[in-house]
């Protein structure tokens, strides 16, 4: 059970507050925000999702810049409360269409009505959008989607010549279109989060994909839907239907939503379901099969004197040129005695920014966009307050990276077709299938060997100097992947389904006009 629930803005403003049991003091929101903003415990820069202050347990998650917080004095399961906060955010988004500070303030009556139905005296009743429609009767005030930030979730799919409609992820499941009509359409999102660790020699030490197939339905009458995946899809390491070289997709494990029927899944990899209202995960999956990482990170650090050193970072985009990655951020911790950093970008660099975070001695390099097949280089000259002792690479790094790549998935998992049961000969709803890949933990270790001192560092990708010898492959059984020179199968590029009369989504051929009767 929980005592309080509240939502705070990035400035600490209290947008929504509900006290269910009266067991925690009223100033808990201020105490929480002050603790999170100035968190300095355990050497961490950010507050953990769960912590205790004066006998009160605080649980919080951050959703699109908003802090969803629950408090309690009871010893409850942290996983339960954190999942509850995520589901409350999802339910509110289903009703409001857009989840931000403006929409919450404009629809505060609806939000409080939802909270009263979801939680009663601190105990959870339901988080199902479909069930809540029977008890919640307020209509949402729709916020203009054009006011969304450029890199909001609604914007990451706005790429290429064939674009999503502006309301693709900003529609309420209960509000009607202007004129009282409801547009018949369904959205399927394949979202993958990649975790990769590169060794100091450039080999892949660990790699994993956590993926989910999200669905959001605006279909009236809840018709039956058939969603087909790759025919060569295998579940579990012991279920090899075909060899690695043939491009089979091998998932370690997966789970499905309660509405999914698996009658034909083992036969033809088809999922059958009647989608409930709102957004929900059709399938969650995890994959550790070898895949080609979308980015390569190369790093070199050289001492340039007693109080100076030079860092060279190179980022290589190893995905097709037809794909563009957004919001790339490269970070690298520097030695604690670093006092100044001078940056040098490559000639003609556009949409790139650099910064030295003095508070935590961190180098940050941001790239607005990166086209597949391109390479970008950054040189940073470091100045220290004391003379170097030992190997500088022991006190710097590792290099981490975050990014978002729309319409690309590394696992090669594809939605082959999306079939909707026809209610009449004229019934032909819109179908949208979208893909996005994001970095979860993308880390590259720094070279551990001592580098010779020279005024100008020599680097393999610097065309002005000869390349250094190729690193030898590390020995031992810990190596889980192949060297960078080995060409793994290219991920299949997904095709955006955009025509309302399209049922088959297998790329790259046009969508077949077919629906089940």
From TrEMBL:
<dbReference type="InterPro" id="IPR022775">
    <property type="entry name" value="AP_mu_sigma_su"/>
</dbReference>
<feature type="domain" description="MHD">
    <location>
        <begin position="183"/>
        <end position="445"/>
    </location>
</feature>
<keyword id="KW-0813">Transport</keyword>
<dbReference type="InterPro" id="IPR011012">
    <property type="entry name" value="Longin-like_dom_sf"/>
</dbReference>
<protein>
    <recommendedName>
        <fullName>MHD domain-containing protein</fullName>
    </recommendedName>
</protein>
<dbReference type="InterPro" id="IPR028565">
    <property type="entry name" value="MHD"/>
</dbReference>
<dbReference type="InterPro" id="IPR036168">
    <property type="entry name" value="AP2_Mu_C_sf"/>
</dbReference>
<keyword id="KW-0472">Membrane</keyword>
<dbReference type="Pfam" id="PF01217">
    <property type="entry name" value="Clat_adaptor_s"/>
</dbReference>
<dbReference type="GO" id="GO:0006886">
    <property type="term" value="P:intracellular protein transport"/>
</dbReference>
<dbReference type="GO" id="GO:0016192">
    <property type="term" value="P:vesicle-mediated transport"/>
</dbReference>
<dbReference type="GO" id="GO:0012505">
    <property type="term" value="C:endomembrane system"/>
</dbReference>
<keyword id="KW-0653">Protein transport</keyword>
<dbReference type="InterPro" id="IPR050431">
    <property type="entry name" value="Adaptor_comp_med_subunit"/>
</dbReference>
<dbReference type="GO" id="GO:0030131">
    <property type="term" value="C:clathrin adaptor complex"/>
</dbReference>
<comment type="similarity">
    <text>Belongs to the adaptor complexes medium subunit family.</text>
</comment>
<feature type="region of interest" description="Disordered">
    <location>
        <begin position="448"/>
        <end position="517"/>
    </location>
</feature>
<dbReference type="Pfam" id="PF00928">
    <property type="entry name" value="Adap_comp_sub"/>
</dbReference>
<dbReference type="InterPro" id="IPR001392">
    <property type="entry name" value="Clathrin_mu"/>
</dbReference>
